[in-house]
Specification:
heterodimer; A: about 110 residues; mainly beta; 6-stranded mixed β-sheet; 4-stranded antiparallel β-sheet; about 55% strand; B: mainly beta; about 50% strand; globular
């Protein structure tokens, strides 16, 4: 069965510093990979996705993630964070043959002023 | 477009009571799903549907029923509430039948005493 591991439950970082949120998945088949963001007291929103093609995908608000098949990773990065990036970030994976997303436990990004 | 709507936003139940969480979407998505979110556990899929009249179980279906009589609506019924069902419940829909790129509602916070 597929699984998704988000290695850090919380990541504190100073404002304007870079950040990396780590995500690893276990699968031997083609996968589709997603990052979702949940702002306080809200539902989840799709941040970015990898379906095929370029292994580097970007969001409109400066986040990027790189699909690394050999390391089965899909880490999320941002070169300079803002206080508005305070949220919980979820990594998810979907395979070809099922109708379910498999979710990581989430990483809370805490921005220190 | 209202997107995905959920009612109520908050609910307190006594053990043994039943209730229905409502979910509706106006995007004509065939795929809809129900999740529960508990601290440190990410999202867990309860039930999902790939079209009117078609439902299937997810990871944690026990104690919950669903029905899908129309494309728009996907209610979740708690049969006999238990304290273990205290959680935040999210409904989501997707334009993709495999559940990629899900759009989430704002959530229902349920407390069972």
């Amino acid at each position: 069965a597929q699984s998704v591991t988000q290695l850090d439950s919380q990541v504190p970082v100073f404002e304007e510093a870079p950040v990396e949120l780590r995500c690893n998945y276990s699968s031997s088949v083609s996968v589709y990979l997603f990052w979702y963001v949940q702002y306080p007291n809200q539902g989840l929103q799709l941040l970015l996705k990898y379906l095929s093609g370029s292994t580097l995908v970007e969001s409109i608000n400066g986040f990027e993630a790189e699909f690394n098949k050999s390391q089965t990773s899909f880490h999320l990065r941002k070169p300079s964070v803002h206080i508005s990036d305070t949220a919980e970030y979820f990594c998810a994976v979907s395979g070809d043959s099922n109708y379910q997303l498999i979710w990581g436990a989430g990483t809370k990004l805490i921005i220190k002023p | 477009n209202a997107g995905v709507t959920q009612t109520p936003k908050f609910q307190v139940l006594k053990t043994g009571q039943s209730m229905t969480l409502q979910c509706a979407q106006d995007m004509n998505h065939e795929y809809m799903s129900w999740y529960r979110q508990d601290p440190g556990m990410g999202l867990r899929l309860i039930h999902y549907s790939v079209g009117a009249g078609i439902t299937d179980q997810g990871e944690v279906p026990n104690g919950y029923n669903v029905s899908r009589s129309t494309t728009e609506d996907f209610p979740l019924r708690l049969l006999s509430a238990a304290p273990s069902q205290t959680s935040v419940y999210f409904c989501a829909s997707s334009p993709n039948l495999q559940g990629h790129e899900q759009y989430f509602g704002p959530g229902t916070r349920l407390t069972v005493t």
